[in-house]
Design goal:
Strand content: 15-25%
Distance between the termini: 50 Å
Order of helices and strands: HEHEHHHHHEHEHEEHEEHHHEEEH
Helix content: 25-40%
Number of helices: 14
Radius of gyration: 22 Å
Length: 440
């Protein structure tokens, strides 16, 4: 046991994290079994021992950020748990239709009131877009405006929302852009809630998988869903979208990504590792490709989004404690705060990619009367520091981000302004559907 403790101490010391230290980012160990468990189980053991109450950390988000920046998790890459997860992902298609519904039941059917307490009024369970002074509600509405403006929605468009959640985006697009919307979800609770919430609008919420799309659409969006697709299904996923779009269709796909091509999975989080994007090959009818129009990186905005969610989860917890046990409380808190640390360390990104069918003509960028591209226009010069415009490589300067909603009022980490919008430079973009498409 002493040898295991020393080994873990040495690993964490490289990230300036101490065992039983006095700083908020230091780990307080309550059970000596923590050390051999972490050495044997890697990041999975690290998270599960936190759920079991074997250790605590006052600033879990910052501790995870430090550990990730120091690449501590790579020391555990050869653990059996990680190797098993990797082998499973390569050999078995875990994102089948049946399993997609299982995910919906286990994660999204925790209770609508639970997510209403944690999220914003539009019930957006994806990265917000902050400008200086925004709270979570304002940042999520700014994100919705961006999603509607970039594919140039206009009245009368038929919009497909793949992974529509509780219907917030569908409701927003129908109310503000005059679209008719079909939303897809694999969660029965989400479907029932969204149908009620969007009643009276031209919105249909269907309980179906993306492989079961029916009909033709002018525009399609998929926000925070591609993470669940799995690299074995990227070709099927893009083909399903392509075949649902009209000849001048556009598709906005937004998801959490690893900027480095890799098939190594973290068994704690189960994110699909996304790789470099390519255009969709022609289908059997020879009808053109999906081309990359532009890319927008929201990654730095997920840190304050997750911190706001954690605060909204923690504050009303006494109301939910009778329904969920203490292990769930610790698991959910670890999930939110460790992800915040990962985004703060810039090891994860959120890329919003706009695709268009080959031959699509540009529309007027103001797709509804009075639209002013409000999502990208800062309210003042200071807010210009959190303005993001596309290209992922050309980082010009360090800037000051909006205030983070961290515990204790800590400021968010410095982020970089991203410039130089791109068109059709798909080979340069460290994202998404890579080897499963290239191999065919």
């Amino acid at each position: 046991m002493a040898g295991a403790r020393e080994a873990v101490e040495n690993l964490l010391r490289a990230a300036d994290i101490e065992i039983d230290g006095a700083r908020p980012c230091d780990i307080q160990v309550h059970d000596e079994r923590f050390f051999p468990r972490v050495l044997a189980g890697g990041t999975l053991g690290f998270g599960e021992t936190y759920m079991d109450g074997w250790w605590d950390c006052a600033a879990l988000d910052e501790m995870c950020c430090r550990a990730i920046r120091a690449r501590v998790e790579q020391r555990f890459s050869s653990s059996f748990a990680n190797l098993l997860a990797l082998a499973t992902s390569l050999l078995i298609n875990r994102q089948t239709r049946a399993r997609s519904r299982e995910v919906g039941e286990k994660h999204y059917d925790l209770g609508n009131d639970f997510f209403q307490a944690m999220l914003d009024p539009w019930l957006q369970y994806s990265c917000a877009l902050f400008h200086e002074g925004d709270d979570l509600a304002a940042a999520q509405e700014r994100k919705l405006e961006m999603i509607c403006q970039r594919p140039q929605l206009r009245p009368g468009d038929r919009l497909l929302d793949i992974g529509c959640g509780w219907g917030g985006l569908a409701k927003y697009a129908a109310q503000n852009y005059g679209c008719s919307v079909v939303g897809l979800t694999v969660s029965r609770e989400q479907q029932q809630f969204a149908q009620r919430w969007c009643s009276g609008l031209e919105v249909q919420i269907q309980l179906r998988d993306y492989r079961e799309i029916e009909g033709r659409f002018d525009r399609a969006v998929s926000v925070g869903m591609v993470e669940h697709v799995g690299f074995k299904n990227y070709r099927t996923y893009l083909a399903a979208v392509f075949n649902s779009l009209g000849k001048e269709g556009r598709f906005l796909c937004q998801g959490i990504c690893n900027p480095i091509s890799s098939w190594q999975l973290d068994p704690w989080i189960h994110f699909s590792e996304l790789t470099s994007p390519v255009a969709l090959p022609p289908d059997e009818s020879g009808r053109g490709n999906l081309l990359v129009e532009d890319v927008f990186n929201l990654g730095p905005h997920y840190d304050p989004t997750l911190m706001a969610w954690e605060e909204n989860f923690r504050r009303p917890w006494p109301r939910f404690a009778p329904r969920y046990d203490e292990r769930f409380r610790r698991m959910w808190g670890f999930y939110l705060l460790s992800c915040a640390g990962a985004f703060r360390a810039r090891s994860l990104q959120v890329y919003s990619i706009l695709f268009a069918r080959e031959g699509t003509l540009a529309r007027d960028s103001r797709s509804r009367p009075g639209a002013q591209n409000s999502w990208s226009q800062p309210r003042n010069e200071e807010a210009a520091s959190v303005r993001y415009r596309g290209e992922l490589v050309d980082f010009k300067k360090e800037t000051t981000p909006p205030k983070s909603r961290h515990k204790g009022g800590r400021d968010a980490h410095p982020v970089r302004e991203i410039r130089s919008p791109i068109t059709d430079h798909s080979a340069q973009l460290p994202w998404a559907f890579g080897r499963s498409l290239l191999s065919s």
